[in-house]
C-alpha cells in the first residue's frame, strides 16, 4: 500500500487554498500551478520556500497513484498502467494523430459495471469509482510521455456518467486557467447511454462534448449487446439526448462499434437513421478491435470486413447522415477502443 498521506492532485485551487490555511493564498496558487505542470515532488517547486516544501512533504503527497508500466505502439500510441493506492490497476492511453495533435483517453472507473459484450473492460467487472485526483493524475502522467495534449476523451475504463461528481471535479481542475487550462470544447465524455446522467449533464454541466456509444439503434439487438439498454431504453435515451441538445446546443457524436456480421444489417442502418431524426448528430463508425476473451451468445466476434465498413458508411451517408470513421490506433499495445483490461500488448495491426 502506498503512502496514505492526503494527495493534493484532486483539489481545485479553492480547495487547495482552504486546505493549506496557514499558507497565503498566493502560495496556494503557486502550488496548484506546480501540480498542474506535473512536477515529481514538492522539492521541485523552486519558488516555494524550502521550509514550506518540507512541511508539505511531511503532511501531503502530490499524487495518490503511480505509473506501474507503459507500452509504446509504433503508431505513436502510449498505454499506461496506473497503480492506485489500494492496488487496483487502471489504464490510460495517449493517442497521436500523426500531426502532433495528442488526445488523452482517460478512465473514470476501475473496471466497468456495464458489461457490453464486445468490450474487454466489460469482462473484467467493476471495482470502484475513481477519485477526481486519480482522473487528473492520468492526464498528468500521459502528458509527461507526450508533451502538450490537445484533447481529452473520457472513453477509457468505466461508465463516466456513473461517476459524475468526481469527474466534474477533475474536469474543473483540468480546465482551470490557473492550471492546465484545457478547453472544455476539447473534452468529450462518452457514455453507454445512462439517461439520468445525460439529463444531469444537460442541467448542470460541465458543458463539454457528449458522445454516446450507441452500437445499434435496433432495441432488441442493443439489449443483447449492451445490457444498459434494459434500464435505459432507446426511446428514453433519445428523449434525454433531445433534452441535452436543447439545453447545451451541442452536436452529439453517436459511436457505432461495427461488429462484423452483427450490427451491419439493413435493420441497423434503418434504425440508426430513424434514431438520429431530430438530433444534431454525427455518426462515428468504429470498426471493432479484436479482443480474445469476448464472444456474443457463444460465438466469437469478428472484425468487420473492409467492404462491410464501406458499405455501411456509404448507406448511412445515402440516408442523409453525417458519418466519420475513427482511425485505428494503438492496436499493438491493446490500447484501442474496447481493449483496455489486462495490461499487455495486443495483436499486430496487420
Ligand atoms: S464499452 Fe464502455 S461502458 Fe461498455 S463495458 Fe466497455 S468500458 Fe464499460
Please, could you describe this protein's structure?
There is one protein chain. Mean pLDDT is 91; it is low at 346-350. Strands 1-2-3-4-7-8-9-10-11-14 form a 10-stranded mixed beta sheet, with helices on one face. The chain has 2 domains: 13-59, no CATH class; 66-333, Aldolase class I (TIM Barrel, Alpha-Beta Barrel), CATH 3.20.20. Strand 10 (252-258), helix 11 (266-276) and strand 11 form a beta-alpha-beta unit. It has helices spanning 13-19, 25-36, 50-59, 120-124, 132-146, 164-175, 195-204, 219-225, 228-231, 234-248, 266-276, 306-318; strands spanning 66-72, 78-83, 89-96, 102-105, 109-111, 126-129, 151-154, 187-191, 209-213, 252-258, 281-287, 295-296, 299-300, 322-325. It has 12 helices and 14 strands. The chain is elongated, with a radius of gyration of 21 Å. With 350 residues, the protein is an alpha/beta fold. Residues 112, 114-116, 119, 121-122, 157-159, 192, 213, 338 line the site of iron/sulfur cluster.
Amino acid at each position: 500500500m502506498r503512502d496514505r498521506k492526503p494527495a493534493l492532485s484532486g483539489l481545485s485551487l479553492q480547495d487547495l487554498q482552504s486546505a493549506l490555511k496557514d499558507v497565503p493564498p498566493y502560495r496556494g496558487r503557486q502550488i496548484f500551478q506546480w501540480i498542474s505542470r506535473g512536477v515529481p515532488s514538492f522539492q521541485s517547486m523552486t519558488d516555494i520556500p524550502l521550509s514550506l516544501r518540507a512541511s508539505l512533504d511531511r503532511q501531503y503527497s502530490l499524487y495518490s497513484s503511480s505509473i506501474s508500466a507503459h507500452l509504446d505502439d509504433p503508431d505513436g500510441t502510449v498505454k499506461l498502467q496506473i497503480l492506485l493506492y489500494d492496488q487496483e490497476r487502471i489504464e490510460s492511453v495517449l493517442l497521436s494523430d500523426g500531426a502532433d495533435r495528442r488526445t488523452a483517453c482517460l478512465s473514470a472507473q476501475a473496471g466497468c459495471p456495464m458489461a457490453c459484450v464486445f468490450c474487454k473492460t466489460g469482462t473484467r467487472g467493476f471495482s470502484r469509482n475513481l477519485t477526481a485526483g486519480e482522473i487528473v493524475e492520468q492526464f498528468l502522467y500521459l502528458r509527461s510521455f507526450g508533451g502538450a495534449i490537445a484533447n481529452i476523451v473520457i472513453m477509457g475504463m468505466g461508465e463516466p456518467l456513473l461517476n459524475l461528481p468526481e469527474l466534474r471535479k477533475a474536469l474543473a481542475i483540468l480546465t482551470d486557467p490557473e492550471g492546465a487550462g484545457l478547453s472544455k470544447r476539447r473534452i468529450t465524455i462518452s457514455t453507454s447511454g445512462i439517461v439520468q446522467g445525460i439529463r444531469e449533464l444537460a442541467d448542470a454541466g460541465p458543458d463539454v462534448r457528449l458522445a454516446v456509444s450507441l452500437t445499434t439503434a435496433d432495441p432488441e439487438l442493443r439489449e443483447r449487446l449492451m445490457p444498459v439498454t434494459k434500464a435505459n431504453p432507446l426511446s428514453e435515451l433519445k428523449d434525454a439526448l433531445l433534452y441535452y441538445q436543447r439545453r447545451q446546443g451541442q452536436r452529439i457524436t453517436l459511436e457505432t462499434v461495427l461488429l462484423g456480421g452483427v450490427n451491419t444489417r439493413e435493420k441497423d442502418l434503418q434504425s440508426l437513421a430513424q434514431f438520429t431524426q431530430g438530433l444534431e448528430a454525427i455518426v462515428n463508425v468504429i470498426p471493432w478491435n479484436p479482443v480474445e476473451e469476448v464472444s456474443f451468445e457463444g460465438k466469437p466476434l469478428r472484425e468487420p470486413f473492409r467492404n462491410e465498413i464501406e458499405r455501411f458508411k456509404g448507406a448511412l451517408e445515402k440516408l442523409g447522415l453525417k458519418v466519420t470513421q475513427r482511425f485505428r490506433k494503438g492496436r499493438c499495445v491493446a490500447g484501442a477502443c474496447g481493449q483496455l483490461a489486462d495490461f499487455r500488448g495486443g495483436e499486430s495491426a496487420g
